Each structure stands twice: as structure tokens, then as C-alpha cells.
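Contributing: when you submit paired examples, paste them exactly as shown. First protein:
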Amino acid sequence: MPPSPQEDQRRKTGQDLLFKGIVIALIGAAILLGPHYARSPAVQELLAGGRLVGWFALVLGLALLGRYGLRRRRRR
């Protein structure tokens, strides 16, 4: 029996949450860890200035991953 259009939409939404959560969390982690690995002082200063943005991206990404996990748990 083929999945209903509603099931397809839910699955696609869940996959989107997972993908976006991973990408945004990785961007946040890269911004936060960047100053420690950058060699150029100018790049270190630039990345250090984005600390608030890095934390926001990391928390947002983790929240999207948590939402994905809750949706999956509820479906079972």
C-alpha cells in the first residue's frame, strides 16, 4: 500500500528538520571553534566577534534536532 500524501509530507518535514538542524548546529560549532584554529589574527578577531551568532546557531540547530527527535518518538 503506497503511503498517503499526508505521510509523505510528514516524512519530508521530518527530514527537513533533521537536515537543517545538523547544518545549523555545524555552522554554530564552526563559528565558535574557528578562533582556536584560525592562523590569521584578522580571521581570529573576525570569528571571535561572532561568538553570539555562533551560540545562537548552535542552540537553534540543537532545538531543531530535538524537535525532530520528539516527532519521531511520537510517531512510534
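Second protein:
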Amino acid sequence: MLVKAANKIRNLVHQGLEEGVSTRELVYAGTLLNSGVPMRDALYSTMIEPLTHDSDLKRSIEEILKNYFDV
């Protein structure tokens, strides 16, 4: 599910996102989740916060993640 969500997030590059979720960020998200970090915290810190400071793009990414995860 992480990879599917990341692929959708990468599509936001056409809407102003400078770059999508990297493989390293996906691995880190999985590591955090595996170690018991709450899903919302793990995904926000690896798949939203590092990518943009723009509030509209953050909301778009959150909507994508909501389609795949209970965040």
C-alpha cells in the first residue's frame, strides 16, 4: 500500500510538488510502522512533511493517504 500511495503522490508533481516520495522515505515509513509508531505520525513525518510546506499540497497528499490508510 505504501508504494501505491507513493505513486499517486508522485502524480502531484504536475500540480507543483517538486519531487515525489523517495524509496528511502518509503523504507523509513515502513520501519517506523513496523516499530510501532502510530500510522498517522509515521506517514506524516515521511510522506508529507519532507515533501512540501504548501498547505494545499499537504491536504492533497493527506487525501491520497486517506484512500489507502486509516489516518
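If you have annotations for the second protein, write them as plain sentences, like these:
The chain has a mean pLDDT of 95.
The first helix runs from residue 2 to 10.
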